[in-house]
Amino acid sequence: MEVIKQRERKKIEVVEAARKWVSDLNFRVSAVLIGSYARGDFNLWSDVDILLISNTFRGTPLDRLKNLDPPPGFQIIPINIEEFKVLLRKKDILVEEALRHGIILRDDFQINTIG
Question: Which DSSP helix (H) or strand (E) runs through 80?
Fold first, then answer.
């Protein structure tokens, strides 16, 4: 039982750290925790996967990541609103996972209403 409580505490700790990081971003963004931490099947080697959706993202994925300074262990997936809409129409697994199992950290664009 103690192991389960430790995992719950770890998940809460990660969600709070992720929420703090995205709340400090100084542009409009919707941010969703996805992957193993959102599902609850994380392990010691799991990254903290965050889908960031913003109109500020331009250029290549590398260009988009240059101005972001995520904490160690955070894996950021930056897409813009139009890309999100296209992926949503295509029923892309990343977007489907974000909407079904993701944990909304910040939602300036109200992504549940896009489509």
Answer: none
Return the structure tokens found at 3: 């192991």
Kindly state the average pLDDT of the residues 76-95: 96
Alpha-carbon span 95 to 99, nearest angstrom: 6
Model confidence pLDDT, tens digit, residues 38-79 = 999 999 899 999 999 999 999 998 899 998 999 999 999 999
β pairing state of 74-79 and 30-34? unpaired
- Mean predicted lDDT score pLDDT of the chain: 94
pTM: 0.93
- Domain ranges, ordered by start, for the chain: 2-113
Q: Is 47 helix (H, G, I), strand (E, B) or coil?
A: coil
Query: What does DSSP say about strands 48-53 and 103-107: parallel, antiparallel, or unpaired?
Result: unpaired
Instruction: Say which DSSP state 26 is in.
Output: S
Could you tell me the fold of the domain covering 2-113?
Beta Polymerase; domain 2 (3.30.460)
Q: Which of 8, 19, 36, 7 is nearest to 71 (CA)?
A: 19
